Amino acid sequence: MNQFTVTKEEKKKDTFLENKIKIKKPNSNYLANKGFLCFDMHTHSSASKDSILTPRKILKKCVKNNFNIATTDHNTIKGAIKLQHLIDTEIAFNKVKLIPGIEITTEQTAHIIVYFDKIEKLTEFYEAIIEPNYNKKKFKVELDVIETIKFGREFGGYVSIPHPFCKLTGIKKIKHLDEEEYIHEIDFIETFNSHTFKRDNIKAIKWAEKHKKPIVGGTDSHILRTYGKTITYNKSSTTKEFLENISKGDSKILGEFDKLRFTIPCVAFTESIHLIKGNPIHRINYARNNIKDKIKGKVSKNKKGMKIN
Ligand SMILES: [Zn+2]
Ligand SMILES: [Zn+2]
Fold first, then answer.
1. For the chain, which terminal residue's Cβ has fewer other Cβ atoms within 10 angstroms, N or C?
2. Which of 240, 225, 229, 222 is closest to 100 using CA atoms?
3. Residue 218 CA: which ligand is closest?
4. Ligand nearest to the CA of 50
5. How remote is the CA of residue 79 from the centroid of ligand 2, in Å?
6. Does residue 294 belong to any structural domain of this protein?
7. Domain span holding position 227
8. How many domains does the chain have?
9. Distance from Cα 106 to the centre of ligand 1, integer Å
C-alpha cells in the first residue's frame, strides 16, 4: 500500500478534510443568501476544442442557479473574453462574477490551470506565454509543467493542479518528475472534479492534506447539465478576495459526481472531438506509451518486488 492507496472504507465516505469537502448537491441560492460566493472552478465553453456550449447559455444557467464560474478552456482565452464581454455589457448577466482562467495542456500532456482576478492579466499571460508556444497540430503548449507553473505565477496568476491523479492528464502520472520540483510553487490543488473517478479525487485530497495546500473543486463541465453541480465557496465580495481567501486556506467544496450513464457518453463525445480537432496520432501514441510503461512496471515488480505507481 502506498501513501495514496484508497481503501474501501474511504470510498464509502462522503465527507473529507474535516467537512471541508462534502459529496452533496450544492444549493448555491441558499449559500449566496448567507453571504458566500460560490464558484464552479473548472468549466469549458465552445472555445475549448471539446465543447459546443456558448457563453450566453452558460451565463443564463449561472443566473438561474445563482452561482459564478471560473472559465478554464483548453489552451485558449476566447471563451473567457466573450464571457467577460457579456457580463460587462448585458444587464441580465451583470451580477455574475467571472474568474478568467485557462487549462493548459503542457508538453508532458499533464494539465495545469492558471486563474487570474482580471481578464486583462489573463490576456497578457496568454499573449506572452501561451499563444507563442501553442502547437496546433499536437494540441498542446510546448512548455513543460515546471515552466508553465513558473510563468503562471510570474504573471500574477494562481496556479492550480486539476485532476492530479487522472491517468492521461494528471501531473502525478508523469514519470520521473519529483513533486519537490514544483509543489512549493503551486497555489491550489483540485480535490474535487465531478468528471474524475472518486478514487482519484480521494488521492488528490490526501495529496493536498500531505502538503497543506489550499483546495478547489469544480465540475470540469463540457455540457450545460453539469454546470454548477460542484462549487467552491467562501465569504468574499470580489473575485480577488475569493482567490486570496482560498490561498489562506479558506475554502469549502460541495459537489456531486456525474452519473456514469451520463459520463460515458460525455467522455466519448469530448474524446471524439479531441480526436477530430486534436492530433489523433499523438493521443494514440500517448496511450500506447502508457501501456508500455505499465508492462515495464510489472516486470520490475516481479524482478525487484517493487510496486507500480
Ligand atoms: Zn483537464
Ligand atoms: Zn477541464
1. N
2. 240
3. 2
4. 2
5. 13
6. no
7. 15-272
8. 1
9. 11
How remote is the CA of residue 241 from the centroid of ligand 1, in Å? 25
178 CA to middle of ligand 2, Å?
A: 24
Q: What is the distance in A from the centroid of ligand 1 to the CA of 105?
A: 8
pLDDT of 127 > 80? The answer is: yes
C-alpha 219: how far from chain center: 8
Adjacent-strand bridge partners of 216: 190
User: Which ligand sits nearest to residue 162's alpha carbon?
Assistant: 1
**What would the mean pLDDT of 97-109 be, rounded to a whole number?**
97
Determine whether 293 is exposed, middle or buried from the number of CB atoms within 10 Å of its CB (0-12, 13-18, 19+): middle
- pLDDT value at 271 more than 70: no
Residue 251 lies in a domain: yes
Give the lowest-confidence range in 113-122, 149-158, 243-252, 297-306.
297-306
pLDDT tens digits along 203-262: 999 999 999 999 999 999 999 999 999 999 999 999 999 999 999 999 999 999 887 555
Closest-approaching ligand to the CA atom of 45 = 2
Q: Does 29 map to a domain?
A: yes
Is 1 within a domain?
Answer: no
Q: Is 111 left (phi over 0), alpha (psi -120 to 50) or beta?
A: beta
Q: What is the mean pLDDT of residues 55-69?
A: 97
Q: How far is the CA of 299 from the centre of ligand 1 (A)?
A: 30
Distance CA 111, CA 122 (A): 17
CATH code, domain carrying 264: 3.20.20.140
